[in-house]
Amino acid sequence: MADEVQSVEGAVEATENTGAAPRRGRGGRDGGRGGREGGRGRRDDRRPRDEDGGEELIEKLVHINRVSKTVKGGKRFGFAALVVVGDGKGRAGFGHGKAREVPEAISKATAAAKKAMIRVPLRDGRTLHHDGRGHFGAGNVTVRSAPAGTGIIAGGPMRAVFESLGVADVVTKSVGTSNPYNMIRATFEALGEQTSPKAVAQRRGKKVSDLIKRGGASDRAAEAEAAAVTE
Hints:
Blueprint: H1 2-18, E1 45-46, E2 58-71, E3 74-86, E4 91-99, H2 102-115, E5 118-119, E6 132-136, E7 139-145, E8 152-153, H3 157-165, E9 170-176, H4 180-192, H5 197-204, H6 208-213, H7 219-228
């Protein structure tokens, strides 16, 4: 009994010396809800810094769903998050994660999205070079380049992709399922097929101006447009 009293007194003295407050119940110290931090009122887009590259990334929380797993004692509930990450300069990726709490699921999805980022060539840094189509499951999407001032004509998950990618003018159409997972995968399949005139010219051993001339442009216009191509 004396040993137990001494151990309890030692724990109290350690708490007083470190300044740590004792744990409380549901209310917490400041009268808040406690428990899940950031579960409510969380912003859908954030700009954290990439730990590897030191650049700011745009995070978009596309979808969050409550899931359950049936175990021996009943059901175990959790959350699944779908996140799109981009640098606003032609790189983007998506990922999903599951956890018992919402913030942890978002963190897992964000980490997966950072590992799966791809480079998409952009025309003048604002739109796509050419039209494209993507298909995944029951989802079919069509993406088209657009003139300056058009804006992002896309809805739901596709808008989050182009905003994080840095595209300012694009026209899209989604046919089939409205499942955000399939729409995101189909969109990235369409973006993965994008090629720039510079890459095509290097592959064929030609100049960029030669490819533009075949489209019916004059020599001066072809040279000017070829000089403006950066990627």
